[in-house]
Every structure is written in structure tokens, then in C-alpha cells.
Amino acid sequence: MSPVNVGSIGEYIRQQREQAKISLRQLASATGVSNPYLSQIERGLRRPSAEILQQIAKGLRISAEALYVQAGILEDRRPDSGVRAAVLADPELTERQKQVLLEIYESFRRELAARAAEDAETAAGAEPIAGAEPIGIEAGGMLPGEPGPNGEAGQADGMAPDVAGLRRDANPVPE
Questions:
Q1: What is d(CA 16, CA 22) in angstroms, rounded to the nearest whole number?
Q2: pTM over 0.85
Q3: DSSP state of 153
Q4: Considering 31, 55, 75, which residue would you say is the last residue of a domain?
Q5: Pick from 75, 93, 128: which residue ends a domain?
Q6: How far apart are alpha carbons 8 and 24 in whole angstroms?
Q7: Tens of pLDDT along 64-100?
């Protein structure tokens, strides 16, 4: 764990507060942390505890983890992640937008990891059911019997079931 740079965490909190267009008094009211203490943190005179950082994060509507990383309490989990680095480096995004994007990204990563674990368990312990046929996808990308864009069930050749009655010169659009 890197040493805490008290000034940088205070500067970071001030930047976040100013971006959120929240006054010091409003942040104090939202967090339950006194106005003078917040001012001292922002000026680099005080070192906030993890609990105070959590309250400040709630007041700023950012993740506590972002503040912990900035304060040196936590190490950034994946400094080599290209997605994280790109989002964090984008000057056009606000800190709140960056945090939301990273939270969504992480949720997808967790979902994929869970799905991969389930697939591995299934592959390790599942045996095919005797006499069961695999489900195939027909031409046109539809499952057998699945309604298509016109509401008709899927056909083996991807065509509507009754086209025999149509003439070449038939114009379905009224003139």
C-alpha cells in the first residue's frame, strides 16, 4: 500500500465537489461531517479515515473505492486494464460518468466470470440425455417453430409456408 498523500486526496475531493457543483456546506450537510473538518481535508491539513471517506463518497455520489484508491488505502485492482485506463483518461467525461461506466463494465465482467464458471461446471458434470436431439438453427437464424418477424413460425427454408398462390405479376401494394 502506498503512503497517503493527504494533499492529493483533499485536492481530489475538492475537484469532485466542484464538478458536482456542491458547496462545502452542502457536502457537510449531506455527509454529516463538519464543514471545518471538510475544509481541512480539502486543504491537506487533515487525513480522513476510511469511514469519513465513505461518508464523503456518498455525499459526492461516487464510489468509496475511488476515494480509497486516491487516498492510497486501496491499490487499484487492475492498473493494466485497457478499458479502465481509457475511461479514466477521457477528459470529456465527468468523474461520475467515469465511475458509472466502470461499474457497468465490472458488472459485465462479473457476469461473464459467473457464466464461465457455470459452463465449466456443466461441462464437467453434465452428460447428454439419451435419445435427445440437438437443437439446430434453421436458415435465416431462427429456431424451429420460433415466430419470425412476420409472426409466422420458422420454416426449413426460411420462407413463408404458403407462397404457391402468388403470381409474379401480382402487386401487393395498392395503386
A1: 9
A2: no
A3: B
A4: 75
A5: 75
A6: 17
A7: 888 888 888 877 655 456 888 888 888 899 989 999 9
